[in-house]
Specification:
The chain is α+β, with helices and mostly antiparallel strands. 16% of the residues lie in helices and 42% in strands. It has 2 domains: 138 residues, Nucleoside Triphosphate Pyrophosphohydrolase (Alpha-Beta Complex); 141 residues, Nucleoside Triphosphate Pyrophosphohydrolase (Alpha-Beta Complex), CATH 3.90.79.10.
């Protein structure tokens, strides 16, 4: 059985009367005749924001503007060729800014419509969940296994802007031999196969810092593309990381300590006041998150 993984971005777009824009799968897609939100796979090196705007033009003819990030999901699907696919999905809220509604000429969708009652259509499970429609997902689920390695590496990660009741900020130091070594970073990391971003974040937070936290919000999505990155073993890789950042509250903080096995990407974890954090060598992700937090 072949195992594969992909990352994708979609948009929830509503008309003035509350209808939602949906596309129908064509014979070229895995589930023909099933309806989905406009969107699709994130190209190597592409920011997810750009993906959803591009996909709307391709599948609907409409230009859209992102108004927010609604959710980040992960699911497994058994495809018609009996392979298993793990998809990390970023769901945006978007609004129309221009264009003319029309179906995709040639591609994985063949019809686009404003739908007042989504429950009247056969929906992909993640779409039903996003729109609050009851749906039996059994047909689309399957077992999971081991990921294949490839020269092109697209990684999906979840990270925490974690604070405690005293207003301290939790950061981790990137270990030698890893990209960004010597810089302080947000706690978090890549999601495992079949793992949701929320579960991955809880796991990484404890492994890297010994903390247990509660997600209180979704800050946003970013990405980094480095086509000439070097892995820990010095092996060149075409590296693309897509990162979701959550706001996390650690209500009962403990001494920050790395619990994962030696040789990992985290050398140290520590709590800092905002004043102390300003003077640290920070990764771009940590810096942007702290700016967002004021």
């Amino acid at each position: 059985m072949r195992i594969r993984r992909r990352a994708a971005a979609y948009g929830v777009c509503r008309s003035a009367d509350g209808s939602v824009l949906l596309t129908r799968g064509s014979e070229a897609c895995a589930f023909p005749g099933v309806w989905s939100l406009p969107g699709g796979g994130i190209d190597q090196g592409e920011h997810p924001d750009d993906t959803v705007v591009r996909e709307f033009v391709e599948e609907t003819g409409l230009d859209v503007r992102i108004t927010g990030v609604r959710a980040v999901l992960a699911d497994l699907a058994r495809l018609p060729d009996d392979s298993i696919e793990h998809t990390d999905r970023i769901i945006y809220d978007v609004e129309v800014t221009g264009g003319t509604l029309r179906p995709e000429a040639v591609g994985t969708s063949d019809l686009v419509e404003w739908v007042a009652d989504p429950s009247s259509r056969p929906l992909l499970p993640f779409v039903a969940g996003v729109l609050g429609v009851r749906f039996d997902t059994t047909e689309f689920q399957g077992p999971f296994g081991v990921l294949d390695r490839a020269e092109k590496v697209q990684r999906f990660g979840a990270y925490a802007l974690a604070t405690d009741p005293a207003g301290r900020i939790l950061l981790t130091l990137i270990a030698d031999g890893y990209p960004g070594a010597g810089q302080w970073h947000l706690a978090g990391g890549g999601t495992d196969f079949g793992e949701t971003p929320e579960r991955a974040l809880a796991r990484e937070l404890h492994e890297e810092t010994s903390q247990r936290g509660r997600i209180t919000g979704l800050i946003g999505v970013s990405h980094r593309y480095d086509p000439a990155a070097l892995g820990p073993e010095g092996v060149p890789m075409d590296w693309h990381v897509i990162r979701v950042v959550y706001r996390v509250t650690v209500e009962d903080p403990v001494a920050a300590a790395v619990t994962e096995s030696a040789g990992g990407s985290t050398a140290q974890a520590a709590w800092f006041t905002p004043e102390e954090a300003r003077n640290l060598p920070l990764t771009e992700l940590a810096r942007d998150a702290l700016v967002h937090a004021g």
